[in-house]
Amino acid sequence: MPVRTTTEADGVLPAGVTVFDDRYPGVANLDSALLRALRAAAADAARDGVEFRVNSGWRSPAYQNQLLREAVTKYGSAAEAARWVATADTSAHVAGHAVDIGRFDATAWLARYGARYGLCQIYRNEPWHYELRPEAVRHGRPPLYPDPTHDPRMQP
């Protein structure tokens, strides 16, 4: 069986893509509420000289499966890979509910101000991974899971 190469149509993003780059499915296919919150936060962050670049957003199941296979190879086991990459069935990226933000200044800005927009880091081991938690606007960000293996949504 030939190996399928993932492309921009699967959510692969070139370097330098921002939350405003709708021409890429990795951005355009994000949940609309998440994208609105990201864009509002990015506009405010820009006033502080910070630009949000998207390393990864929406992903096709094929792309997510490829990332998981690569993680198993890198980390040596499925159990260890699960600390970093979800299955296509459980991934918030495949559902369009997660975004990985690049650049330290952007993740530092989000760590400080993201809850004002409902944007929250979910996993302690992934400071780049953000999801929308609207309740955070009123109640602050929820406690972090150590890694995805502690997230009840990732359980079979």
UniProtKB/TrEMBL annotation:
Domain D-alanyl-D-alanine carboxypeptidase-like core: 29-130
Pfam families: VanY
SUPFAM superfamilies: Hedgehog/DD-peptidase (SSF55166)
Family annotation (InterPro entries): DD-CPase-like, VanY-like_core_dom, Zn_M74/Hedgehog-like
GO molecular function: carboxypeptidase activity
Annotated keywords: Carboxypeptidase, Hydrolase, Protease
CDD domains with a match to the protein in the record: Peptidase_M15_like
GO terms of biological process kind: proteolysis
Keyword Nuclease set for record: no
Gene3D superfamilies: 3.30.1380.10
Record-linked PANTHER family: D-ALANYL-D-ALANINE CARBOXYPEPTIDASE, PEPTIDOGLYCAN L-ALANYL-D-GLUTAMATE ENDOPEPTIDASE CWLK
Protein name: D-alanyl-D-alanine carboxypeptidase
Origin species: Actinocatenispora comari
